[in-house]
């Protein structure tokens, strides 16, 4: 198969690496990065331009196009590729609104009876202030649109929450969009990520993972796009995947189909395992980063056949997935200043030394080649170092050995990825929507614009 992967981050590097394992496919990537260049032919393209991507797909005679990042999906790149008659793994622009608009996702969840946090859509400063006071601390404020993983603030400080909400409203107004920000109730309990491959009617869940959003050890500091992840989750309930498929993913897929916008691609279910049961924190419309780095490292079933089956409506014919016995841990090396203003152009050394270590591979994210050919930083999250081992302790040791082999001036990383397992809430998980006495706790609630309750 000839496969074209759209994107330039560590997620796309992980996808290309997984597609390359069999060595039987011709791989292309646009625009790619220096790490991906070792596995695929790179092409210059504006990733959010559907016509450019479709033209490139025709040029390379692609049998399958895989769209990695959220911005091209929301911009309709998958629609343009499918209109060109080429199978595409990725949702339409309308379906990608599950990620592109937090308020739309809440609307879908309410219609599908998917358990989630109560929320209020705010379009003015007055509504924002009233919503913060209604829910109280900890305050959860989310940009209604795409924000590169940094649109969410969770804080005990009302002033910080208000300032973030106002900045979201101002940003959207300046972009000519309707000002909107979502304020939610705080969800207790550990968070879990579950990817479900979807073909519009059927779905296949992958292995769950947990990522680390805060910039600093101990879950301190600002939110980021993700500083590390691990899989599997030995502490999670044994029936977690089945429960999420039954109560979250399948109802959402059916609701999207009912609306005439079938979802094809990855439905990323960001979940909180709360004292009242599973709750959806957010949906994404693509593979998550950095969870993809560990989930695909463990996947033994050929990825190409799974993505093609999803793109062509054939997931129902896919059998049970096969998984490697190893655990996986990834640690993100971030540039100086991340997640704020970052410094680019610093030389990166030691990636080959890291990859020479047993069970270690390095995935490129914010990297580039200098005019002299040196590998340099070009973004906030620069590299993801992945360790595979017999268990999480072994995988973690290998990942950090890889990190220590790499030198990048001013960089930082968390030192506690997968260091300790979270504790589940005291009350039992898994209470069904129809369990006697549990219905009020588990019924999803979404607050209409201007209506606090």
Structure characterization notes:
The structure is a single chain. The protein has helices at 10-20, 50-59, 70-74, 77-83, 97-100, 102-111, 125-135, 158-174, 240-258, 291-298, 303-311, 351-355, 392-404, 439-442, and strands at 2-7, 26-31, 41-42, 64-67, 88-89, 119-122, 139-143, 152-155, 181-184, 191-199, 203-205, 210-211, 214-216, 220-223, 228-231, 264-274, 277-284, 327-334, 348-349, 360-364, 367-369, 375-377, 381-389, 407-408. The chain is of the alpha+beta class and 453 residues long. The protein folds into 4 domains: 2-90, 3-Layer(aba) Sandwich (Rossmann fold), CATH 3.40.50; 119-184, ATP-grasp fold, A domain (Dna Ligase, domain 1, 2-Layer Sandwich), CATH 3.30.1490.20; 189-324, ATP-grasp fold, B domain (D-amino Acid Aminotransferase, Chain A, domain 1, 2-Layer Sandwich), CATH 3.30.470; 325-418, Phosphoribosylglycinamide synthetase, C-terminal domain (Glycinamide Ribonucleotide Synthetase, Chain A, domain 4), CATH 3.90.600. It has a 5-stranded parallel sheet with strand order 3-2-1-4-5, sandwiched between helices. A 5-stranded antiparallel sheet has the order 12-15-18-23-20. A hairpin with an 8-residue loop joins strand 7 and strand 8. The longest helix is centred in the middle third of the chain and has 19 residues, at 240-258. The radius of gyration is 21 Å and the shape is globular. The termini are far apart. The model is unreliable at 429-453 (pLDDT under 50).
């Amino acid at each position: 198969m000839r496969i074209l992967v759209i994107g330039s981050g560590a997620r796309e590097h992980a996808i290309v690496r997984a597609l390359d394992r069999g060595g039987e496919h011709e791989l292309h990537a646009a625009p790619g990065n220096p790490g991906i260049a070792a596995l695929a032919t790179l092409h210059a393209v504006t990733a959010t331009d559907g016509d450019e991507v479709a033209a490139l797909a025709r040029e390379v005679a692609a049998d399958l196009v895989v769209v990695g990042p959220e911005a091209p999906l929301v911009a309709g790149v998958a629609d343009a590729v499918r209109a060109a008659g080429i199978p595409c793994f990725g949702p339409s622009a309308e379906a990608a609104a599950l990620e592109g608009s937090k308020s739309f996702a809440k609307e879908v969840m309410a219609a599908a009876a998917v358990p989630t946090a109560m929320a209020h859509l705010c379009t003015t400063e007055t509504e924002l202030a009233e919503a913060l006071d209604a829910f109280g601390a900890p305050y959860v404020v989310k940009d209604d649109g795409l924000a590169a993983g940094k649109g969410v603030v969770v804080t005990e400080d009302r002033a910080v929450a208000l300032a973030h909400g106002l900045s979201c409203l101002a940003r959207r107004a300046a972009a000519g969009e309707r000002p909107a920000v979502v304020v939610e109730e705080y969800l207790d309990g550990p968070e879990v990520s579950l990817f479900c491959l979807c073909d519009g009617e059927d779905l296949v869940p992958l292995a769950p993972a947990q990522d680390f959003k805060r910039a600093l050890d101990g879950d301190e500091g600002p939110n980021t796009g993700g500083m590390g992840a691990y899989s599997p989750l030995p502490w999670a309930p044994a029936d977690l995947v089945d429960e999420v498929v039954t109560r979250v993913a399948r109802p959402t897929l059916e609701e999207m189909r009912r609306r005439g916008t079938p979802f094809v691609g990855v439905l990323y279910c960001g979940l909180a395992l709360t004292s009242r049961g599973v709750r959806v924190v957010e949906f994404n419309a693509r593979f998550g980063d950095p969870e993809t780095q560990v989930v695909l490292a463990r996947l033994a079933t050929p990825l190409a056949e799974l993505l093609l089956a999803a793109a062509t409506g054939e997931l129902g014919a896919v059998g049970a997935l096969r998984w490697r016995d190893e655990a996986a841990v990834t640690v993100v090396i971030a540039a100086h200043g991340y997640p704020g203003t970052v410094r680019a152009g610093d030389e990166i050394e030691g990636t080959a030394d890291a990859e020479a270590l047993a069970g270690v591979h390095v995935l490129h994210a914010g990297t580039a080649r200098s005019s002299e050919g040196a590998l340099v930083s070009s973004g906030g999250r620069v590299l993801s170092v992945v360790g595979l081992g017999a268990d999480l302790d072994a995988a973690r040791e290998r990942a950090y050995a890889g990190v220590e082999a790499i030198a990048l001036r001013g960089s930082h990383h968390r030192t506690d990825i997968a260091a300790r397992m979270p504790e589940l809430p005291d009350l039992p998980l898994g209470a069904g929507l129809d369990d006697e006495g549990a219905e009020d706790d588990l019924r999803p609630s979404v607050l209409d614009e201007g209506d606090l309750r």
